[in-house]
Write a structure and sequence with these properties.
alpha+beta; 334 residues; four-stranded mixed β-sheet; 2 domains
Length: 334
């Protein structure tokens, strides 16, 4: 395909004038509306116009409680320990070809359909990536002895160790919706005033706004960290004495070679619980998930005379789990 000349506009067969900026704005608006994770993440624009394709994110440890000292006694200096995680910038994109015949057919709205489907495709990819990074959190609560219910969610929420409750969201699969709605502690969204809960929430339970998304992961077989389990190896594991890392990280992304794990065969849903707001005492701490935007959606158009119009949309960026202390993965029986 020839390179698009964005200095020109092209009149489509159906009489519309193609304006890449207008189409880009339309796609941006639709992407935001369709994305489940919109509102639960922070977008960082500092990478725009900057060189480099990898971001290294520090995760700081707590220096501990202050201590008492006598007059004139020197104060010990605590070294701020931290770990890092590196994320590579991703290029995502989708293209559509509108043939002249399709545009001349007079049925429907070819351009509107193309924009809608590109937005849906990009939104789906963004959402999948953003949900996926949540599962890197090592904060896990295993309540797979029963299906999702109030007591299990309480266990998940208490994993945060909060002294004061903060605003939280739990993502559930549509197959769990009926189970939760029948829980006597579930309060449906229509019982609250507008604007009290996050957009898309169907209700609240155990202090969590409940959002339904089929992006919630489920596994028939999965792994958990267990000091009495089998060792994880890079390769060569036979499953009876050792497990291969490539098999383990599918359901336990933070696992590494040398860990000991156990294989579980109880089918389970992995429900992320996301802490949305900062603690009062640490207002400048990192959000749970940050999307590092290198370049937003760019629409390019190329006309093949007498044949078709090609529309391509690309974007550069990547999501990262920037504060794993704000994400708990609750595992419950499917």
């Amino acid at each position: 395909m020839r390179m698009a000349d964005l200095s020109k506009t092209t009149t489509l067969v159906n009489g519309d004038v193609f304006d890449p900026q207008v189409v880009s704005d339309m796609i941006n608006a639709k992407v935001e509306k369709k994305a489940v994770m919109t509102g639960y993440i922070t977008v960082d624009n500092t990478l725009q116009g900057q060189p480099g394709s990898t971001v290294t994110i520090p995760k700081w440890g707590y220096i501990g409680e202050a201590e008492e000292y006598a007059e004139g006694e020197p104060i010990d200096k605590s070294k701020m320990a931290f770990t890092t995680a590196s994320y590579g910038i991703k290029k995502i994109g989708k293209g559509v070809r509108l043939t002249d015949e399709a545009q001349l057919s007079g049925y429907g709205n070819p351009m509107g359909t193309a924009v809608n489907q590109i937005a849906m495709s990009i939104s789906e990819k963004l959402d999948n990536d953003r949900v996926k990074v949540m599962y890197e959190s090592p904060n896990i609560v295993d309540d797979t002895s029963a299906v999702i219910k109030y007591t299990a969610i309480v266990d998940g929420v208490d994993k945060f160790g909060e002294e004061e409750d903060s605003k939280k969201v739990i993502l559930i699969h549509s197959k769990q919706k009926t189970q939760l709605r029948k829980d006597p502690d579930f309060i449906s969204a229509d019982k609250y005033e507008s604007g009290v809960m996050v957009n898309g929430s169907i209700g609240r339970i155990a202090g969590c706004d409940v959002v339904v998304s089929n992006k919630v992961e489920s596994y028939k077989e999965w792994y958990k960290i267990d000091s009495a389990g089998k060792e994880v190896v890079e390769s060569g594991g036979d499953g009876s004495t050792k497990f291969n890392l490539s098999d383990v990280i599918k359901s336990l992304p933070f696992a590494k070679v040398g860990d000991n794990v156990t294989k579980v065969t109880t089918e389970a849903f992995f429900n992320p619980i996301i802490k949305l707001n900062n603690d009062a005492e640490t207002e400048d701490d990192m959000p749970a998930i940050t999307y590092f935007l290198k370049r937003g959606n760019l629409v390019e158009h190329d006309r093949e005379p007498g044949v078709a119009d090609d529309i391509v949309c690309t974007a550069y960026g990547m999501p990262a789990l920037t504060n794993d202390e704000k994400v708990v993965i609750l595992k419950v029986k499917a």
